[in-house]
Design goal:
5-stranded mixed beta sheet, alpha/beta, about 325 residues, globular, UDP-N-acetylmuramoyl-L-alanine:D-glutamate ligase
């Protein structure tokens, strides 16, 4: 990685699936009746999306997708955030563009004209706060290297890649292209593994990406163990320590572990009343990167990540409802 030529315009540039999130509370019977795997993310087609949407109770709709949530939360914490992701030139695409801009996130990607409609994620939240996600990717699958805005990448301190986008070969090529551009500009590249099932589908490709292109790795315990095919977290952390400069691993109510070289920081979870776990990992990454790009210690990064996650899981939806900027300024 070369030294940066200019000061960054953005702290974080997210690249991911641009999705309109629909979040609604349901009972356990709804999950069973619709033959869903509770707590997972499942890719669905347009017909299945229409069926589930028609059966859902009224929900909260907003711009979403994992990296988009991270960027919106980071902006709410005072970070300068930008985002790249493909929506269609349709009603939901306009909803996404307006919503993410209103959150304070720069969104330069032009809409897809004449192709698949804008993606949507139908998020069912059961009384135990577990979320089951059914995602129709729509226009998201058209994101490839040509959609990587080179100027935006070069202007961001950290380029943050969303693992959910990794299903398509064009998106994998886009990740490698964005990473090369970022490193040529002296910037850092972060990856969130997103989901252990996603890792299972593309383990070899993820491992190659991590070894060759990633500086900062975000994962929960299950995802990291899946990546390295380890039954023990300590073994997976040891392998991650050799492959990336920094890794942050979340462990739900047990907090998080952050490693950088020989340095290790273990930080407890912030107190929380759990209503909906949607976006918890996204918010953690937002807080962590907001603090990291401000030059804070690893422990301070993890604390802000935990604080943001705790706020998000205390209500429906994956965005901040409480202003945490005062807490974000504290070390």
């Amino acid at each position: 990685m070369t030294a940066p030529a200019t000061a960054p315009r953005f702290d974080i540039l997210g690249i991911g699936n641009a999705i309109v999130d629909v979040v609604a509370p349901v009972g356990e019977a709804f999950i069973t009746r619709h033959d869903m795997r509770k707590g997972s993310m499942t890719l669905i087609d347009a017909q299945r999306a229409e069926q589930i949407y028609a059966a859902m109770p009224p929900g909260q709709e907003s711009s979403g997708g994992s990296a988009a949530n991270t960027c919106a939360v980071a902006a709410g914490l005072g970070a300068r955030a930008a985002y790249l992701g493909r929506v269609a030139d349709d009603q939901l695409g306009a909803v996404f563009r307006h919503d993410i801009a209103a959150a304070g996130v720069h969104f330069p990607t032009p809409p897809l004209v004449g192709g698949a409609p804008t993606a949507r994620c139908l998020i069912l939240v059961t009384p135990d706060a577990q979320r089951t996600m059914n995602t129709y990717l729509g226009a998201c699958v058209s994101f490839g290297p040509d959609e990587v805005d080179a100027d935006a990448v070069a202007a961001a301190s950290v380029v943050y890649l969303e693992g959910y986008l990794f299903d398509e070969s064009a998106a994998q090529a886009a990740f490698r292209h964005a990473a090369a551009l970022a490193h040529a500009a002296g910037r850092q590249v972060a990856l969130t593994l997103s989901d252990s099932f996603c890792v299972d589908r593309h383990r070899a490709a993820f491992r190659a990406l991590v070894r060759s292109h990633i500086d900062i790795l975000f994962a929960n315990e299950a995802e990291l163990c899946s990546l390295y095919e380890c039954s023990e977290l300590a073994d997976a952390l040891g392998l991650a320590r050799r492959e990336v400069a920094l890794a942050a691993v979340t462990r739900s109510e047990q907090g998080s572990i952050v490693i950088r070289g020989e340095e290790t920081a273990e930080v407890p979870a912030a107190p929380a009343t759990v209503i909906d776990t949607t976006g918890a990992g996204d918010a953690y990454a937002a807080g962590f990167l907001t603090a990291l790009t401000a030059g804070r210690s690893l422990a301070a990064c993890a604390r802000l990540g935990s604080l943001a996650a705790a706020e998000v899981i205390g209500h429906y939806g994956a965005r901040l409802l409480r202003d945490l900027r005062a807490e974000a300024a504290l070390d």
